[in-house]
From TrEMBL, chains A, B:
Family: Belongs to the isocitrate and isopropylmalate dehydrogenases family. LeuB type 1 subfamily.
Name the UniProt record assigns to this protein: 3-isopropylmalate dehydrogenase
Gene name in the database record: leuB
Keywords on record: Amino-acid biosynthesis, Branched-chain amino acid biosynthesis, Cytoplasm, Leucine biosynthesis, Magnesium, Manganese, Metal-binding, NAD, Oxidoreductase
Residue(s) at site: Important for catalysis: 139, 187
Binding residues annotated for NAD(+), in chain numbering: 74-87, 277-289
Residues bound to substrate: 94, 104, 132, 219
Organism: Pontibacillus salipaludis
Residues that hold Mg(2+) according to the record: 219, 243, 247
Pfam families, per the entry: Iso_dh
Length: 353, 353
């Protein structure tokens, strides 16, 4: 298997190095051969090549079986014009690879739940998956422009019906592998696109009679994620609602630094990345938490390669490290021993081999 | 002053009756003369007049100095085609009256904070105001339509630059009357409309040098509202982001049943309504909590009529009722005495006169 590594900016370099070591160890243990190629994206690509997404990076990703990304962005590029912003690299590679399904599993770790802003009773036991449509909607629709000498501005939320169908199918399939409950989030009382979304969900549910379906308006969903996160199993929604709700959900369990994500193409090819950002303030200090990136490699093994056992080995190792009382500076394991990136990586490696 | 009452659906009737009694008592005490006219909106208007927003209602509101609304909606009309949905009445009256600024103050009551899903340390002391643009953006933009035989669907997010300017001015002025901190929320790393939004905020801040300004992306705002609500004073944002964030914020303090809102026109005319919905399940039973509607009349006195002292009398009376240990069924005052709508109204009346 060909894996492209895109470390990107800030702590990206450090966490990708860690995750690669863990992935290598596990694949060797199970006798798989993975080959790694490193390429530039984001701010570092702007500095070296004058663009956040070099042709060479696109080509390498297109020829690969999976991509592992660190993070993009930082204050250095914040004032750049919009085509020279690190995020454009991320948006661009999603579009180029046709990564339409963003999967964000959110599950608390017992050792970290006390760091949640929510009361223990409210959050304990929550285990949800947000499936966000990633290539359509308001972030990509045209026209997106100023008009009338700048007196007016327009963005466009646009969806092809088949784009909605494929993400809804993906979510139903995900729900099948879990607790068989799907919440579809839209704003069908106002938006035409949401009405089509709701129709598609209603049509598709006939094909998945074993999955229970519920519709929720996005404003109500934003409330219920906080008041009762346990009521959710799989949530499916369009690009922008998914952006907002998945970030909202990411802070519920008190372990943002532990959350992985997957962005998938129809054939299973995917890009995997931690949910946290590039954390420029601690970059290069050897203190970054590599666990979300390590957990992202588990998602890669599961979703792109169907290697469930290998994925579970990584997830259990991470769980074990926390149970053994280790943490990085961003985490707050009660009575835990704080370690740096390298030592944390070694502790995980010890437990996967 | 001419006040239009729009009870609407569900518990609307009951809470409007309560709020009217309180408003009458306070205005009499201070020797103001208010005249009341009741009209139909929402589901009840669909049933009686075949439209959620009768001409007659629009005309009465246009001739009034302020409008007090109960709630619209209910399962009875959920399957209606979209032009015959109760919400259309609400969207329509906002548009007809030019109510561009939706103000949602969110402040916890000590007696109710224990019902918050958030830990006490996280939520105690939070006191924020969300200023949502209400007449532009994705909910009103055209085209909003299916295309290509239903294979494609489009909604349009559109803003006039001066629509952004007036809401940003409104928010700066609100911040001035509070702790002088303004958080502007957008998605300027992706949307053209958000770039214009950010430019306008940057331009306007020169006129308000005493107000500290911060920009936040909507996904980050959705996180920070939960992890640290205390960091916010005034939040200003466009229509849809405001819809989502204000509902998210409304559950933080554990007292959704206590939250008022104001929707204002440039000349100060406004529509006032509780944040909670029509609660069809408990309608007509005499148990609805009238306090959010009563508090909405305080906002009316303050924002439409500049009657700050009168507004404060109502707010203090509500505060006092809670301190004295009374609550309605939806609230959970520890060791509190549960009362119905009429008795709660009497308790407030006792304290305003
Ligand atoms: C960087 C940005 C464009 C991106 C998005 O909103 O898609 C990010 O917020 C995310 O959620 O991955
Ligand atoms: C009923 C609906 C159209 C409305 C809105 O989103 O504007 C409601 O959610 C609100 O927030 O007042």
């Amino acid at each position: 298997k060909q894996i492209v590594l895109l470390p990107g900016d800030g702590i990206g370099q450090e966490v990708i190095e860690s995750a690669k070591q863990v992935l290598e160890a596990v694949t060797e243990r199970f006798h798989h051969t993975f080959t790694y190629h490193t390429h530039d994206i984001g701010g570092v690509a702007i500095d070296k090549h004058g663009t956040p997404l070099p042709e060479d990076t696109i080509r390498a990703c297109q020829q690969s079986d999976a991509v592992l990304l660190g993070a993009v962005g930082g204050p250095k590029w914040d004032q750049n014009p919009s085509h020279l912003r690190p995020e454009k690299g991320l948006l661009g590679i999603r579009k180029q690879l046709g990564l339409f399904a963003n999967l964000r599993p959110i599950k608390g770790f017992d050792q970290l739940l006390h760091a949640s802003p929510l009361k223990h009773d409210v959050v304990a036991g929550s285990d949800l998956l947000i499936v966000r449509e990633l290539t359509g909607g308001l972030y990509f629709g045209t026209p997106s422009e100023r008009r009338n000498n700048g007196k007016e501005v327009v963005d466009t939320l646009s969806y092809q019906r088949d784009e909605i169908e494929r993400i809804v199918d993906n979510a139903f399939q995900s729900a099948r592998l879990r607790r068989k409950h799907l919440t579809s989030v839209d704003k069908a009382n106002v938006l035409e696109s949401s009405k089509v979304w709701r129709e598609v969900v209603e049509e598709k549910k006939v094909d998945y009679p074993d999955v229970e379906v519920e519709h929720l308006l996005v404003d109500a969903a934003a409330m219920k994620l906080i008041t009762n996160p346990k009521q959710f199993d799989v949530i499916v929604t369009e690009n922008m609602f998914g952006d907002i709700l998945s970030d909202e959900a990411s802070v519920l369990t008190g372990s943002l630094g532990m959350l992985p994500s997957a962005s998938l193409r129809e054939d299973g090819m995917g890009l995997y990345e931690p949910v946290h950002g590039s954390a420029p303030d601690i970059a290069g200090q050897g203190v970054a938490n590599p666990l979300a990136t390590i957990l992202s490699t588990a998602l890669m093994l599961r979703h792109s390669f169907g290697l469930e056992k290998e994925a579970a080995v990584i997830e259990e190792a991470v769980q074990q490290v926390l149970e053994d009382g280790y943490c990085t500076g961003d985490l707050d394991v009660k009575g835990g021993k704080q370690v740096g990136t390298k030592e944390m990586t070694r502790l995980v490696l010890e437990r996967v081999t």
